[in-house]
Amino acid sequence: MEYVLIPAIAMLVSGLTLFSGFGLGTALMPAFALFFPVETAIAATAVVHLANNLFKLALVGKSGDWRVVLRFSVPAALAALVGAGALVWFAGFPALAAYTFFGHESEVTPIKLMVGLLIVTFAGLELSPKFAALEVPARYLVLGGLLSGFFGGLSGNQGAFRSAFLIKAGLSKEAFIATGVISAVIVDTVRLAVYGASYVTAHFGAIPRESVGVVIAATAAAFAGAFVGARLLQKVTFRTVQIIVAVTMIGIGAGLAAGLF
To answer: Residue 171: pLDDT band by 50, 70, 90 thresholds?
Structure first.
């Protein structure tokens, strides 16, 4: 089932996120979390996210504004170190509670509770017209980088803040897209380095081997979605899709926080 659901989500959202504020990581991580431990899901999502953004970089990267990249992405990279370190720290905490739900043994752990609540929060932001219309003045780019990088490292949720802060940076549509992709690549590279130096190294034997195949399939599907999205680079409204996916994410995030997944 994971070989169907996860690549399908990767393809759909990759196409949408190329020219909208909708985040690939925001939607893909809960899909991975349905089948794998939370920390593995976040690391796997980061691999797909980075590979997909490198592909997007080849498609649209030449339009990036490096002045904005330096002001936004350097703080984001530093904050991503802190966020990724916090994720690794939370992963080592014992369960807070355990219970049986319809014959299924469930555990509420700090990492599941934290990431689940973040998923619900960011999905709620996707549903908020006010947040979708939020445009933060360009003088706050450094703050935007810090927020985007921290939450990117902690849970993979970085797109919402990145778009809100970059939208007022005086960029053309093409430069906005390319600059966001460059920033995402930088944050993904940093957080993957932290994950690799800690969780992956320390617990390599515990990583489900089947997750490798799913990551490869999801990456290929994300490439296809990005390629199609690049061909359709124009003003498109995906509000209905955003609402459907966001509502689904709220359900998944709540279940994750409750220890059902």
So the answer is: confident
